[in-house]
Design brief:
The chain is an alpha/beta fold. It folds into 2 domains: 302 residues, Aminopeptidase; 140 residues, Aminopeptidase i, Domain 2 (Roll), CATH 2.30.250. Helices cover 29% and strands 24% of the residues. The chain has 12 helices and 22 strands. The strands form 5 sheets. A 9-stranded mixed sheet has the order 1-2-3-13-4-14-20-16-18, sandwiched between helices. The model has no long low-confidence stretch (mean pLDDT 96). Bound molecules: manganese (II) ion (2 copies). One manganese (II) ion binds next to helix 7.
Length: 467
């Protein structure tokens, strides 16, 4: 249904299903605070539902048949899964794509220092953040430290109630006269995002040699003791500073959810589930892509611009016995895709940036966007009207609440998605997504109804697209 408040039409049974799905989503969000953690969780969920690593299929020269379920991961940071369909692959796939990286603060490669009896990690933020939102709040440290011998130390510190958290200070209001005159962009500078990690000086070991930076040494001693890591090991680490704490229900009626990384895991998880929950053999081959690096331009080996998607489809095709180049190209050009990324939900507190009749409302279901981009639709995939008509029909046939929107008023701002990168294979692609408030803030807000309608929309699309 178009532009209705989804909550008004739910039966008790609908609400029960919604709540069950939301509880699963909350768990995913709480264990997947980095792209690596999301891929790990995706692999576990997929394997539990009978998916096998495509790499093993290839290695063993196995042939895939309709109904087979496989997945593939790239550098532990991006992920794809397929359910092989009855129809020949050249007829095309039904694809759901979204990203699993989120804005955050990364630890620098030479991060550790001491200043006036406090030990810090120096940082460099990732993606678009309002820096002032990240100070004076509990922060957790997630990621990996890879030692020269190849062994990997995994960290997720700051999430358990007994864990310590980390902290970036802000200037006290009493002394902030000058700071308060600055613009919001300048009030907290990127280079000032320094993470407090300790303050106890190391005990002197021998009497002869005086350690210069005792607090830093104290932290290093702990790191050595707890994790076996040396200062130089930070050189080959990927440590991400994210908000500490769990996803929470919001409101007396618990209709909303607040959590870190909704952009874009609020689309990734329902997309993943729609594919791995699929029972039996689909007509067309189903595919889900969870990609990395979207927040910094989809670049790199694990971003959507890389050949991971194409290479994996080629491997799948060969495993299905399809080796002719043009048939594999047809498989891609005949595919239908929903490229999902969060939509800028209409915020009554900041109504002036939206054009209300073309804005996505919380609780009105999944949002489709014919185009994204900025300044005259620049940089956007502009979905075909014929394709949009098919998607509308699928949503109505399957009783899914949806809306159609733009990101903002014309020329106010904008954003890009992975849609155009997939569309270059000449496949039908449309942007879709769940409306989010406070996008890119440490905690973002969504409606539970929209998450659930998103899941329903993806299931309907997988079932009926291209048929
Ligand atoms: Mn984003
Ligand atoms: Mn996004």
């Amino acid at each position: 249904m178009y532009k209705k408040n989804a909550w008004e039409n739910y039966s008790d049974q609908d609400r029960e299903k919604l709540n069950a799905f939301i509880e699963d989503y909350k768990k995913f969000l709480d264990r997947g605070k980095t792209e690596r953690e999301c891929v790990k969780a995706a692999i576990e969920e997929a394997e539990a539902k009978g998916f096998r690593n495509l790499e093993d299929v290839v290695k063993n020269h196995e042939t895939l048949k309709a109904g087979d379920r496989v997945y593939s991961a790239c550098m532990k940071k991006s992920f794809m899964a397929f359910v092989v369909g009855e129809e020949p692959l050249e007829k095309g796939m039904n694809i759901l794509g979204s990203h699993i990286d989120s804005p955050r603060i990364d630890v620098k490669q030479n991060p550790l220092y001491e200043e006036d009896d406090l030990a810090y990690l120096d940082t460099h933020y990732y993606g678009g953040i309002k820096k002032y939102q990240w100070v004076a709040r509990p922060l957790a440290l997630h990621g990996v430290i890879v030692k020269k011998d190849g062994s990997v130390v995994e960290l997720a510190l700051g999430e358990k109630p007994e864990d310590p958290v980390f902290y970036i200070t802000d200037l006290l209001i009493h002394l902030a006269q000058e700071q308060m005159k600055k613009t919001a962009a300048e009030a907290v500078e990127g280079e000032a995002l320094n993470l407090v990690i300790g303050s106890i000086p190391a005990a002197a070991e021998g009497e002869e040699e005086e350690v210069k930076e005792k607090v830093k040494q104290g932290v290093l001693n702990l790191l050595k003791q707890e994790y076996g890591i040396e200062e130089e090991d930070f050189l080959s680490a990927e440590l991400e500073i994210v908000p500490a704490g769990k996803t929470r229900d919001v409101g007396f009626d618990r209709s909303l959810l607040m959590g870190y990384g909704m952009d874009d895991r609020v689309c990734s998880y329902p997309s993943l589930r729609a594919v791995i929950d699929h029972e039996g053999t689909p007509a067309r081959t189903l595919c889900v892509i969870l990609t990395d690096k979207e927040e910094i331009g989809s670049v790199g080996a694990t971003g959507m611009e890389s050949n991971f998607f194409e290479n994996t489809v080629v491997e799948l095709a060969y495993a299905c016995g399809v080796t002719e180049d043009r048939l594999i190209r047809r498989a891609m050009s005949n595919s239908w895709m929903l490229s999902s990324d969060v939509s800028s939900g209409y915020d009554p507190n900041y109504s002036s940036v939206f054009e209300k009749k073309n804005a996505s409302m919380l609780g009105h279901g999944i949002c489709f966007l014919k185009f994204t981009g900025r300044g005259g639709k620049s940089g956007s995939n502009d979905a075909n009207a014929e394709y949009i008509a098919c998607v509308r029909r699928i949503m109505d046939d399957n009783n899914v609440d949806f809306q159609m929107a733009e990101l903002s008023k014309v020329d106010v701002g904008g954003g890009g998605t992975i849609a155009y990168m997939c569309a270059r294979y000449c496949m039908n692609v449309m942007d879709a997504g769940i409306p989010v408030l406070s996008m890119h803030a440490p905690y973002e807000l969504v409606s539970k109804a929209d998450v659930y309608e998103g899941y329903k929309a993806y299931c309907a699309f997988l079932k009926d697209a291209g048929v």
